[in-house]
Amino acid sequence: MMLRNAAGRRAVATAATAVSLALALTACSGTTKDSAESGSAKAGSSAKADPDAPLKKGLKLAFLPKQINNPYEKIVDEAGIAAAKEYGGTGKEVGPSDANASSQVSYINTLIQQRQDAILIAANDPNAVCGPLKQAMKKDIKVVAYDSDTAKDCRQLFINQAGSEEIGRSLVQHLGEQIGHKGKIAILSATQNATNQNTWIEFMKEELKLPEYKDMELVKVAYGDDADQKSFQQTQGLMQAYPDLKGIISPTTVGIAAAARYLSDSSYKGKVVLNGLGTPNQMRKYVKDGTVEQFSLWNPQELGYLGSYAAAALASGQITGAEGEKFKAGKLGEYTIGKDGEVILGEPTVFDSKNIDSFNF
Ligand code: RAM
């Protein structure tokens, strides 16, 4: 089911690494190439993995989402907390109500004081969270990024929902087919610092350079900050600025739902193609009313479940985060750590009117 072949995964991870390094280098908080590279000396990597070590009982895990009022993040974290119960641990979710770059810092500091065994973080910025996360690792608190990565030296693992390159390129491929590879398009993203969206957008731009997209033009990347109202207004703004827009890609569950709500009640309904990443439960009504034909996502419950087991395996000494180590993620089976501590959940699913009713998340 889920594991990509080793060669495919390596290719994706390498390209993704190049993009995230480029992003890190241009980020305003001043990550330098040297500091990014020295980061491969991950905390804990000097320890030896004991693949036969049992999962410790009573592990304390904390999930720190981009923001607590995001329905997608809630699904991921609740599944991770439920998974902790399976192996005799406990989990909790704490976090900010907005996805600003530094909004997670004070939460990390508190979790360090509380001596959690592991912090799982969907980072709002690859660099802004690094100082406190490094402090946590120094104190032997394991750090697992999920959904949205930190710079590589600030966590031991990154649980990626699917290959970043595949997510970015496939969204352009799908939209391209829908609009006959012709016309103006825009992207409605989350925040300007979000590692996951920025990585996907880099791959979208790469895909758009291919000859089949020569008649498609990306006119704007707008940011709705993963806030419903701002995303709604940004969609309205896009349509006012580019009334001949043919398509919008929104690679955020908050953005695509807000954009669909705007379009569904406008003269653009059924004329402007909206694609991107959404949850079936939020998008169902827009598929049924003809606003949206298709969108994609992975299973967020499985992402939380996998992250929880990965954190437990780290905290139990089964793995250290090194490439090639393997661990069992309960009912999902065995996973292998790839380059730069990346573990890939699987392939995204495309949802449309034919299959949407079989999904409930
Ligand atoms: C939003 C968040 C999250 C992203 C999903 C697709 O909920 O931005 O980070 O993975 O969309």
- Overall body shape: elongated
Provide the residue-averaged pLDDT.
90
Strand sequence of the main sheet, in spatial order? 2-1-3-4-5-13
End-to-end CA span: 20 Å
CATH architecture of the largest domain, by name, is: 3-Layer(aba) Sandwich
Q: Low-confidence segments, ≥5 residues, pLDDT <50? A: 1-45
Largest sheet: 6 strands, parallel
CATH superfamily of the largest domain: Response regulator
- What's the number of extended β-strand segments? 14
Which ligands occur here? Answer: alpha-L-rhamnopyranose
Q: What would you report as the Rg, rounded to the nearest angstrom?
A: 20 Å
Structural class by SSE content? alpha/beta
Percent of residues in beta strands?
A: 15-25%
- CATH topology category name of the largest domain: Rossmann fold
